[in-house]
Amino acid sequence: MAPDAAGESPDERVFPMRLQRFLARAGVASRRGSENLMTAGRVRVNGRVVTELGSKVDPSVDEVLVDGVPVSLGESAAYLMLNKPSGYVTTMSDPQGRPCVAALVPTDLHPGLFPVGRLDVDTTGLLLFTTNGDAGQSLLHPSRHVNKRYVALVRGSVTPHQLELLRGGIPLDDGISSPARAEVLDPSSPAARPVCPDGVPRGCSVVSLEIHEGRKHQVKRMLRAVNHKVVRLHRESFGPLVLTGVGPGEWRDLTKAERDALERVARGGADADGR
Ligand code: URA
Description:
elongated, 6 helices, alpha+beta
C-alpha cells in the first residue's frame, strides 16, 4: 500500500504505528494536537515520557498514558454537527477570551473533540466536530475535494456573467479558485432563509456557492472579486452532510448513515459528496 503524506501506511490496522497517529486515532486530539501533547512531555509509553515525534507504538503490547490516563483504540470516535451561530470563533480555546465554539459542544462527553476546518466568526451553519484525528485531517486534505455549499446574502444584483466567472475560477491573491457551482437563489425560497429570515434587504441578493477548496475567507473573497460584498454567510453542507435537524447554537450526533458516508469520503472511497 502506498505511503501517505506523513510516510505512513494509510492502512489503519498496521502496527506499530506512529505515536501521534495512534493518539489521533484514539480520539485524544488532532494529529497536530497529539504532537503538541508529546512535545509537552504529557505522553508516556510503558512508563517513559516520549517526546520524539517519530516514536512508534504497538497498542497490543504498549501501555500509553496521556496525563496519566490510559489511552486505547477501543472506543469508536465521536462525530457531531454544530449549527454554528454568528459571534463564535472556531477554536477550542481562545487566549483573548472571545466566545468560542468549544462552549457549544459536549467536550465533557467527548474529550479530544475538535472542529474539522473553520468558519469565520460571523459565518453560521454546519461545522463538523470529531475526535477522529485521522478522519478530520483527511477530510481537510485538498486531495479529498470535499464539497462545501454556502448560501450568501450579498450587496447588489449578481449577473449571469458574474456567475460564469465564479463557475470558471476567480483569480485571488493566493491563486485561481477551482471551478465552483454558483447560482442565484430566489430570496423567498426556503434555501435562502438562513441568510434572510425576514426577507431580503433592499439592493441585496442571495447566492448559492459550492466549492471544494478551503482557503481562508474563500467565499467572501470570491464574491468580493466579482464586486459583491458578503453581508451574511451560512454553510449548508459539508461533503455528504447537510445541515438538518439542528437549530442555531445546537449540535447533534451524526446518524449511522451520515458517519458511514463521511468515513467513506475520509478514506477516499467516495466522491466529495459521499456518493
Ligand atoms: N468562506 C468564507 O469566506 N468564510 C467562511 O467562514 C467559510 C468560507
